Amino acid sequence: MKSPQTILLRPLQTEKTSAQHAASGIVCFEVARGANKIEVRQAVEKLFAVKVDEVRIVTMKRKPKTLGRYSGFRPAWRKAYV
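User: That's the sequence. What structure does it adopt?
Assistant: Structure tokens below.
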């Protein structure tokens, strides 16, 4: 099993996630690209000593970025609503 610190990369704190947390107790994390729902559930339960009801994972698509004449992409990443 992977360690919880490698699965949960960081918490996401935005206006949307703050409103969701206040309304229904949902917390949002940036997770590793290869993590699945079961691994995320076990990592949150182990790190924070809570019981998780459900996990939803969203893959955020890569974005094109340009700096002067150079163009490229920001990497894709995943976030989990717990």
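The first strand starts at residue 8 and ends at 11.
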